[in-house]
Amino acid sequence: MKVAIQGELGSNSHMAALAMLEDIASAGELEIVACAVSAEVFARVAAGSVDGAVLPIENSLHGSVAEHYDLLLAQPVRIARESLLRVRHNLIARPGVELADIRRAMSHPVALSQCRRWLGAHPEIEAVNFYDTAGSVKHVMAAGLGDTAGIAPEIAAREYGAEVLVAGIEDHAENFTRFHLLLREDRWAPGAGENKASLAFSVEHRPGTLVLALQEFARAGVNLTKIESRPVPGVPWEYVFFVDLRFESPGQIDVALGLVARHCRMLKELGRYVAA
Questions:
Q1: 205 pLDDT above the threshold of 90
Q2: Which whole-number Å values give the CA distances from 227 to 34, 198, 254, 276, in the listed order?
Q3: Are 92 and 148 spatial neighbours (Cβ–Cβ below 8 Å)?
Q4: What pLDDT digit, counting tens, does each position of 172-202 carry?
Q5: Which of 60, 41, 61 shows the shortest CA–CA distance to 51?
Q6: CB neighbour burial string for 68-101, b if at least 16 within 10 angstroms, e if fewer
Q7: pLDDT tens-place string over residues 72-129
Q8: Which helix (DSSP H) or strand (DSSP E) does residue 164 occupy?
Q9: Domains in the chain, start-ordered, CATH in brackets?
Q10: Of 202, 261, 254, 267, which is closest to residue 230 (Cα–Cα)?
Q11: Pseudo-torsion of CA 82, 86, 88, 94, nearest 10°?
């Protein structure tokens, strides 16, 4: 199975893919395809050059990944599964390098922002923005840097032959990222035990239409667990609403969709899956 991720090998997305597809990975039948940008990931899935993709949709501290909501709406993909990954940030350097040697720590800006306390306690170390967490370790090793470390998952050290100098430097232990496994629409099929759905919809620009749509979810007895709004490209001050719902049976969510559709200009089901 070929699965695309955004970022380098050794990233949190790489870890999430291995965990989500553990049976396939343990059999040696999982190939991870690293992509530079998220749009490339979605394009590969849509074109069928990969079997699926694993992408983050929300972090418990940083919030939602807005770009991925936009791409979910625009591309012919479906959410087939979700998982939660505990995020741990580690200071990683070349073998033999000691903490006293480090003068720069490189990582993605989000990772750096989640390690402010540790970095603040080490003013001798300059925080440097980099395009990717695992990519920072890859760069340190490829460039042979002895005074620079990357901040990345532990898997990045294994991937590039580096060593963890300090483990767990994140500010908060309760740091989780929610990931989705995406398949092309024509390769998706309902599974067993599905109890969660993700939808996107827009309503008429009239007073009360959003309230009416949301009330239909309550009427059908489904539980709204998340709502996110995104602007419609090219249409100022118009919005698409992305919602996550918990339900007890396929019939229940089907009824909800039928009721809500009466108030919507657009309604797209993004996926049904088992809640993580």
A1: no
A2: 30, 10, 19, 18
A3: no
A4: 999 999 999 999 998 888 888 999 999 999 9
A5: 41
A6: bbbbbbebebbbbbbbebebbbbbbbbeebeeee
A7: 999 999 999 999 999 999 999 999 999 999 999 999 999 999 999 999 999 999 999 9
A8: strand 163-166
A9: 2-87+175-187 (3.40.190.10), 90-166 (3.40.190.10), 196-273 (3.30.70.260)
A10: 202
A11: -50
Q: How far apart are CA 36 and CA 13, in angstroms?
A: 13
- Alpha carbon 2 to chain centroid, angstroms: 18
pTM listed for this prediction: 0.91
List phi, psi (to 5°) of 131. -70, -20
Backbone φ, ψ for residue 7 (5° rounding) = 110, 180
The two three-digit tokens of residue 185, written as one number: 């629409």
- The residue length of the chain stands at 276
Written as six digits, the tokens of 255 are 């009824």
Q: Which residues are catalytic?
A: 177, 179
| pLDDT band, very low/low/confident/very high, at 233 (cuts 50, 70, 90) | confident
Strand partners, 245: 197, 224
Which strands sit side by side in the sheet containing 163-166, from one edge to the other?
126-129, 104-107, 148-152, 90-93, 163-166
Provide the CA 12 distance to its chain's centre, in angstroms. Answer: 9
- Whose CA is closest to 94, among 46, 150, 27? 150
